[in-house]
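Narrative summary of target 7.
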Amino acid sequence: MASSSSPERTGSCLCGAIKVRIQGHPVRTNLCHCASCQKSTGVVYASMAAFKSDDVTYTASDPSLLRTYDDTSPESGGVLERSFCGRCGSNVRVISRGRAELTIVPQGIIDGNKDDLRPRLEVFCARRAGWLGDVEGAQTYEAMPTGA
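Modeled conformation, tokenized:
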């Protein structure tokens, strides 16, 4: 676990059945414009924050509600385990089988102020909707950069 001086965040799905507790700072904050993220979120980009997996804890009022879909379509390659609430359908977690040490949390489920979660990276910008501009200060990539 992260040190006690690290920030602690909480969050939940829309219906509140699945809760998350995050201890520590994000490893990465990004917007993803890939087709898989667009389809899985229902919007034109996903706003995500990646944390060390050891710093993220999920609990569910009914464990059967935390469901996972193995997404084999991502343009980044590999398999993404996309978890969601079986009651309300909220996306609550993404884990890349190739990088299980990171848990990617959709920023929309995190409670409170998210100013410090400003995206520092935009990926798959080749698919970005034309009416969206760059995020000031974020690095942009046409695809997924190596090591991200």
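DSSP finds one helix and eleven strands in the chain.
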